[in-house]
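User: I'll paste a sequence; please echo it back and then give the predicted structure.

Assistant: Echoing your sequence first, then the prediction.
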Amino acid sequence: MSDVLLEEQDLFADLVGQPLAVTLLKAALMQGRLAPAYVFAGPEGVGRRLAVLRFLEGVISEGQCNQRQRRRLAERNHPDLLWVEPSYSHQGRLISRSEAEEAGVSRRTPPLVRLDQIRDISRFLSRQPLESSRGLVVLEEPEAMAEAAANALLKTLEEPGHGVLILLSAAPERLLSTIRSRCQLIRLIQLSAEDMQSVLKRLPADVDQEAVRQGLMQPELVAMAGGSPGALLGHVRQWLRVSPELIGRLHPLPTQPIEALALARDLTEALDGEQQLWLINWLQQHLWRLQKSERVLRKLERLRIQLLSFVQPRLAWEVTFLDLMEL
C-alpha cells in the first residue's frame, strides 16, 4: 500500500462522535462545491482542529487520504496554508500563546487576534497558491478580535478570492452577525461518555496516561471538560501546574482572615494571570459541588472580571477570600 495516497481509507476515520459535521464536509469535497469561508464551531477539544486538518487534506488531495500532505498540514509547513493564532505583543513583535509561555512573557490578559494578522490573511488569500488549487487560511479564536480587526476581516470576507478561510471558534455567537452570515457553519458537538473514552484510549504514547487517569478521578476537571477529551487534557495539564500544597489550602477555603491573606499572597506569587483565571473555573466547580451556592459563583465571577480589568491581583483575591469567609 502506498504511503502517499490511500484511496480506500476514510478521510475522517479518526474524527470520533461528529457524524453531522463529517457528512457536510464529505459532501462539499465530493461535489467540489467549497464555500469561500467556514466557521468550525464547538467546544474546545471535541475535534475541531482535527476536522479542519482532515478537510484541508481533502481539499488538497481531492477528497482522498494523503499521508504526505497530512504530515505537512499537521506540522503547518505547507506553502499554501496560513494558520493564525491569537497573539501577544512582545518587544515589537507578535508571539503565540505557546511562545509566550516558553519565553516567560506575562500572560495576565488573554491573547488577541490583531489587525496586522488580518492584513496578513488578506495578502495571503490574494496571492496565487503554489501547490494547492487554492490558498488555505485557518484563524483560531476569531472571537478574540478588537473592532478594527473584525471590520478588516469582514472586508476580506466580502472579497474572498479563490481561497478558503476557516474560522475556528468556540464562541461563534460573539462574532459579528455580518461575519457569521458570510460563512458556512460546521458545528461540532460535545462527545458522549463512550466516545470520550474512545478518544482517550487513542492518545499518543507521549501523553502521560497516569495524569489522564488522575484527571478522570477529579470531578471538577471532568465537569469543566464538558464532554471534551481535548479540554480534559488541557485541564489536567493546568491542574498539574498548581502545587498540591496550594490546592490543599483551597480545600477547604480559609476560615481565618490571616489565612485568607496569606493564601492570596502565595497564590498570586505562584501562578501567572492565565493560571489564576483557570483556577477560578476550578473553584467554581469545586465550591458548587460542595455548597450549591449561586452567591459564591457570583463572587468568583466578579473576581474574574477584576483580574481581566487590571485590578491588582493580590488585592482582588484577598477581598474575594474574605467575602467567601462571610458566606
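The chain has a mean pLDDT of 88. The chain is about 55% helix and 10% strand.
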